[in-house]
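In the laboratory, one determines a bound structure by crystallizing the protein with its ligand and collecting diffraction data. In a computational setting the workflow is compressed into a single prediction: the sequence and the ligand go in, and a structural description comes out. We illustrate the idea with zinc ion.
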Amino acid sequence: MTTTTNRAANDVGSFTTVLGWLNNAVANGARSPRVKIRTTAGLMGFALPRNRRPGDAVLFVKIDGNYVGTIRCASDGSRFFPRGWVAQGTFEALRAIGDNPLAAAVGHGHATGNCSFCARDLTDPRSVSVGYGPICAGHFGLPWGEVGAAAARIAAPRRAPVVTPVAPAAPDLVALRAAAVAAERETAAAAREEFEAQQAVRDAQARLLSAIARRDRAEIAADAANTALRNAEGTAFVPVTETIRMSSGGTTYAAHPSGEE
Ligand SMILES: [Zn+2]
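The predicted complex, in structure-token form:
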């Protein structure tokens, strides 16, 4: 005869302990207690639903601050109902906590230096050793002091930590290279635009100087022409008047006998 463990696919161990901690904290006056445990799937947070009825055995689960689903706690196994798609490793991380919640909380304190229950830095050597602080131990109903240290040692032996510290993400070399190439291209494009703009300024300055010189020459020529005309008017038998007619095609110069339109 063989024994089979009939564990449901969404069975994540026993979260009645975590539920009990949170209920203790509420009984001790905490308004919205949380238990946070760092896992390979992210920073997991467990909380009681805001609108809960007496006897509800439900936990809300967040990963890195985002709600990911609900755990329904029961004596024969707690089941996780994800809200939708959940990151790989979520179920495994939940089971690691559900199989030994105290070890997970202690392991979080050891791995992060922060209390699982209030997120404060653990400074007291006894807190560092136990993995959470004395105030939270009182509120949540956890072992503390010598008993706590012993419980922590039993719950989370250092040689086999339940919570694996999350390694910092490797730099995304492909994205960094792409960003560097894009920045180089942008630099080249901006330099080209600057050069073209400077060239346009030089061209415009050359045209300006050319126009000034042309105007100067034209003024000298106009003075000379007017002088010649005045001299001629003084001596000619029939004076000639220069009239200027504007037309759409340009300026038309026409010589007419004096007085005629
Ligand atoms: Zn604390």
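The chain has seven helices and seven strands. Keep in mind that any predicted model is a hypothesis to be tested, not a measurement.
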